[in-house]
Amino acid sequence: MMGSANAFGTQGNQPLFSFGLISDVQHADIRDGRSFVGVPRYYRHSIHVLQRAVQRWNEHKMHKFVINLGDIVDGFCPKDQSSSRVRKVVEEFEKFEGPVYHTIGNHCLYNLPRDKLLPVLKITSNDGCAYYDFSPTPEFRFVVLDGYDIGAIGWPHDHPKRMEAVKFLQEKNPNSEKNSPEGLVGLERRFLMFNGAVGKEQLKWLDGILQEATEMRQKVVICCHLPLDPHASSQEALLWNYDEVMDLIHRYNCVKVCLAGHDHRGGHSIDSHGIHHRVLEAALECPPGTDAFGYVDVYYDRLSLNGTDRMESTEMCFNP
Ligand SMILES: Nc1ccn([C@@H]2O[C@H](COP(=O)(O)O)[C@@H](O)[C@H]2O)c(=O)n1
Ligand SMILES: O=P(O)(O)OC[C@H](O)CO
Questions:
Q1: Ligand 2 interacting residues, C-beta cut-off 6 A
Q2: pLDDT tens sequence across 203-251
Q3: Is 99 helix (H, G, I), strand (E, B) or coil?
Q4: 164 occurs within a structural domain
Q5: Which ipTM score applies to this complex?
Q6: Pocket test for ligand 2, best of 34, 262, 265, 280 (most atoms within 8 A of CB)
Q7: Whole domain around residue 267: which residue ranges?
Q8: What are the record keywords, sorted (predicted)?
Q9: Is residue 301 in a domain?
Q10: Residue 31 belongs to a domain with what CATH number?
Q11: Is 43 inside any structural domain?
Q12: Number of domains within the chain
């Protein structure tokens, strides 16, 4: 019957809630450039993409929150402007009339060390880590992972987590330029300095969260700057220990969707356990006047991403 409540307590085809999405703004007040492989990057324009996104999310009036999948300011931003640029982009996000949840990316860490970055992004942490979770409704839980927990960027020079990452890269990548995948084959090509890993403590925390979500019959959406599935991303962009994280996630049935950024062209896959992996198209790569942002309508059995312009729309149906 039209408009009546179903067994899940939801109205016919009304979403339970919705939220806004954007990734890789990578803004800087510098001339347009290109990625290492020649893809154009529009550093000045990307903040306008964000501004239009915020305007649209606010016009919609119904979005409960916004998620930023990382990389708000580009590493080429002049260092004496890093702090003000990061604040400027965060201020644009904060024009959204609701909470904004940030995921940290490599470019955020090129600009500011963790102890400076996390307070600006309003990520509460006492050990410098940037993973957390939130539950916008009793039925859903969002888990934001810190993909640079073990990473060669962002930690103080002599920090044990940086040392661990440097040692790991020495073992896995023989190139003197640790961002070069030269000679690495297949999935080994992810062992680059602009990627990182989820550390042991974070994995333990994630295990506890997934256990709790299972007990509470919550569906989980994972957010991480670095993609977690090779079929949704180029090999060069993957989390170093994506396999370890996915083995843990696959021990539970509660995770339905994983969202990521970093691989700017975007991607989508459904893994062997029916989990959707959606890598978002970058705001940075939108030629002037074009856009890449979206919003997600959340239903009990699907997430429906409504993309604007260069962001592809994606239906992500799952077994509730
Ligand atoms: N095939 C590659 C790709 C990248 N690099 C290095 O990584 C840096 C970042 O690359 P972008 O995708 O952000 O342009 C780049 O400056 C190179 O140092 C590489 O060596 N080989
Ligand atoms: O956003 P960047 O500059 O770290 O580039 C990421 C790479 O394109 C991932 O393949």
A1: 24, 35, 71, 106-107, 194, 234, 236-237, 262-264
A2: 999 999 999 999 999 999 999 999 999 999 999 999 999 999 999 999 9
A3: coil
A4: yes
A5: 0.95
A6: 262
A7: 17-317
A8: Hydrolase, Metal-binding, Zinc
A9: yes
A10: 3.60.21.10
A11: yes
A12: 1
